Amino acid sequence: MRHKKQCPECKKIFYHIDNRRKFCSNICANRFNRMFGENNPRVKSQKWRISNGYRVKWKGHQRIYEHHLIMEKHIGRKLKRSEVVHHINNIRDDNRIENLMLFPNNKAHLAYHNYLRKL
């Protein structure tokens, strides 16, 4: 028996044998169930989200870390792709400028961690 349904994403009417199917296509399902993005109601309801311990804001499909924004404001320019912002006390959501340290690249950042490990 075929079931008549309306896709919650594109509002198109479709027919399907399986009553459990909710979307007309995988494209609509992925668009509706997308984990990240500014149109996701879970993201819209929060100004900042915690992702892997960091405070993150989503702008379209791009994530913006709060500690990057704070460091950019402090140094007065955009960060280079190679630059790494480090949290001195290792608390990822503590974004006070006195807790942030800027490294020119990841190699220098890892060397700093190796130095601390030897202490």
How would the blueprint of this fold be written?
Blueprint: E1 3-6, E2 13-16, H1 26-33, H2 41-44, E3 49-51, E4 54-59, E5 62-65, H3 66-75, E6 84-87, E7 100-103, H4 106-118
Antiparallel strand pairs: 1-2, 3-4, 4-5, 6-7
Structure characterization notes:
The N and C termini lie far apart (71 Å). Strand 1 and strand 2 form a beta hairpin. A three-stranded antiparallel β-sheet has the order 3-4-5. The chain has a two-stranded antiparallel ribbon with strand order 1-2. By secondary structure, it is an alpha+beta fold. Helix content is 29%, strand content 24%. The mean pLDDT is 83. The protein has helices spanning 26-33, 41-44, 66-75, 106-118; strands at residues 3-6, 13-16, 49-51, 54-59, 62-65, 84-87, 100-103. It has two domains: 3-33, no CATH class; 42-118, no CATH class. The protein contains four helices and seven strands.
Helix and strand string, N-terminal first?
Answer: EEHHEEEHEEH
* Total discrete domains: 2
| Counted beta strands | 7
Principal-axis shape = elongated
Largest sheet report: 3 strands, antiparallel
Structural class: alpha+beta
Order of strands in the sheet with most strands: 3-4-5
Distance between the termini: 71 Å
Helix content: 25-40%
